[in-house]
Structure formats: structure tokens, C-alpha cells
Amino acid sequence: MNIVKLSTVALEKGTIVATALRLLDELGLDGLTLRRLAGELGVQAPALYWHFKNKQQLLDAMAAAMMAAHMSRPELKEPDGWREWIAGYAHSERAMLNSHRDGAKLVAGTRPSPELFARVERAVAGLESAGFAVGDAVRGLFAVSGYVAGFVLEEQADRMRSDVGHARPDMEAFQAAYPRLMAGLAEVGDPQGDRSFEGGLQLVLDGMERRLGAQSTAAAGADQVSQAEGETAR
Fold it and tell me: Residue 144 to residues 18, 90, 121, 122, 195: CA-CA distances in angstroms?
């Protein structure tokens, strides 16, 4: 273990956060404590409180550091390209959450930053420019983000799950007992794999596209009614 001796120099926030993220990869979220972090930095635990009042503030800063590159992704510029833009956003979010052990648990348990609210505000505006009602724009973003977070949570849990003490299933018996499930899995692939992720994401985007189409049809119908009423009034 490399211990950075900082007891005689000023401790910087960036150093604390970077070290905490490294320990997160080694120990997991449950194993990360302020005492262990202080020991890794070569200081006493009270020294950390100059920068973070409690562990939650540290976790918030760690999540913000993880999300920095993801938050800098380009905004939606071409309304007709909204579907590809959201797909890119989802893949970026998955990569971000997977950039550190227990990343999904960490981000889910932290408080959203002002920068995140500003990012979502701009994303909603972009989807409105593509024709979405404001409520459906928010629902769509929440649905995609929730799908990604849930997928990565299972993905990361599956990596840490131990098969020690569990006998391998009899696949022939499993096939006989659950033929529809096995047929579906043959098409889907690894439930925590890339093909599964992409398939689920496309289902969410299909729902958004259908809602957008319904809105466009309703708007066109309303315009026709308004035009007919105007001609009648003449």
C-alpha cells in the first residue's frame, strides 16, 4: 500500500477525492471509511473535516468527480437527432457509472449538484425543441437514466457475486423447466451484457418516439379543427 505523507503540508480537496476513488476501487463503498482514507493520506481523520463536514459530503464530491466528463457531453443541437443523442447520453452514463467499483451505488446515494440540474434543464429544452411536451421530456430523461442506473447496479453486483458453494445448474433440466425464458435469453444474450443493455435502451427510446408521434398527431388534429372552425366563422 502506498501511503502519501501529507501531515506537514496542506491537504487539497482534489487529492482527498482522488485517493477516496482509488480506495473505492480497492475496498468497495462499504469498506470506504474516513479513518481508512485518513490513514492512506498519512493524516489523522479530523484533518479531513477541514474540507468535508461528514462522509456524505465526501461521497457527493466523489460522485461529482466521476460525473465530470459525462456532464461535459455536447448538448442536443439537431432536434431530429434526439434519439441518437439520448442513446449516446445513456452509453456515456453507463461508462461513467462503471468507471469505479460500486459507482452506481455511489451516485444513487448522493445529492444532485447544481451543475446536474443545469444539465437536465438544457436537456429538457433540447427535447422540447424536438417536439416533446415538457412533462414527457422530463419523464423520458428520468426513464432513460433510471434504466441505466438499474442496469449498472445489477451489472456491478453480478461481478462481485460469488459462485462459491453454489452448484452449477443442470442446463438440460433448466431448459425443460423454463423453455420460454431460455428462448428469450438466447435472443437477449448475457442479461448484464452489451446486447441486453442496447436492447432495453431501444425499447425505452421506442416508447419515447411513440409518445412524440402521438403528440404530433394530436397537434395536427387540433390545427385542422381550429382551421375548420375559422372557415366556418367566415
Answer: 29, 7, 15, 16, 16
